[in-house]
């Protein structure tokens, strides 16, 4: 059984796959307590893999996004395989502090200040900008680097930071801008 906060269908609002329709599986709980966290993830229900697959199967998109909370607390390679057997492309949103199954298709790592990374493979880095030095993140083994305003509140400073650090691209939380989930 895996503890699920919510399963919903929307568009990926952030980062490389922005605009892509996707089923979001939001797992419950997290190993960090970021002051800026925009998600209520503590509540949840234990669901079997059969129940999760039935819910995911209600939506037509191939992309599934594992998020939370911190999804690494609840997933394993067997669960990712199950999604693959259903034809799904499996993405994860993770804070990067915990090991991940090796068979995930797309890893979005959002490192948090004061934490140590526990993963060696990632496809994109997505940093929530709070005015911190971002140059240290540029050595991470990702192909894409995104800087995301915090709760859409510091867009000007984030744009300015990206223009000073051109390895990065702006990621807006587009779902908040157009008021979808
Ligand atoms: C809610 S987290 C869940 C996944 C994982 N715990 C993580 O932090 O990557 C999903 C994404 O939202 C970002 N995020 C959380 N709170 C935010 C905020 N207030 N403004 C912008 N992005 C935020 C996180 O950094 C992460 O990239
Ligand atoms: N539309 C939409 N896109 C998202 N991308 C990452 C999200 C998350 O909370 O992990 C998220 C979310 O909550 N909604
Ligand atoms: S790691 Fe992610 S889910 Fe956990 S508190 Fe931070 S932003 Fe929220
Ligand atoms: Mg979100």
UniProtKB/TrEMBL annotation:
Catalytic reactions on record: 6-carboxy-5,6,7,8-tetrahydropterin + H(+) = 7-carboxy-7-carbaguanine + NH4(+)
SUPFAM superfamilies: Radical SAM enzymes
Cofactor(s) recorded in Swiss-Prot or TrEMBL: Mg(2+); [4Fe-4S] cluster; S-adenosyl-L-methionine
Bound cofactor: record note: Binds 1 [4Fe-4S] cluster. The cluster is coordinated with 3 cysteines and an exchangeable S-adenosyl-L-methionine.
Domain Radical SAM core: 17-181
Signal peptide: none
Molecular function terms, GO-annotated: 4 iron, 4 sulfur cluster binding; carbon-nitrogen lyase activity; magnesium ion binding; S-adenosyl-L-methionine binding
EC number: 4.3.99.3
Binding site for substrate: 11-13, 26, 67
PANTHER family: 7-CARBOXY-7-DEAZAGUANINE SYNTHASE (PTHR42836)
Protein name: 7-carboxy-7-deazaguanine synthase
Name of the gene this protein is made from: queE
């Amino acid at each position: 059984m895996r503890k699920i906060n919510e399963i919903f269908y929307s568009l990926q609002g952030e980062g490389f796959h922005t605009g892509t329709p996707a089923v979001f599986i939001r797992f419950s709980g997290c190993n960090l307590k970021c002051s800026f966290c925009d998600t209520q993830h503590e509540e949840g229900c234990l669901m079997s893999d059969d129940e999760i697959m039935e819910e995911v199967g209600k939506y037509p998109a191939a992309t599934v996004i594992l998020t939370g909370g911190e999804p690494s607390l609840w997933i394993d390679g067997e669960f990712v395989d199950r999604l693959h057997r259903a034809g799904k492309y499996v993405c994860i949103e993770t804070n990067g502090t915990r090991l991940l199954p090796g068979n995930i298709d797309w890893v979005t790592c959002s490192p948090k200040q004061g934490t140590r990374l526990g993963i060696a493979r990632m496809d994109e880095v997505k940093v929530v900008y709070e005015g911190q030095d971002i140059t240290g993140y540029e050595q991470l083994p990702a192909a894409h680097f995104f800087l995301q305003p915090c709760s859409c509140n510091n867009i000007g400073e984030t744009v300015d930071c990206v223009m000073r650090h051109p390895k990065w691209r702006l990621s807006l939380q587009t779902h908040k801008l157009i008021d979808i989930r």
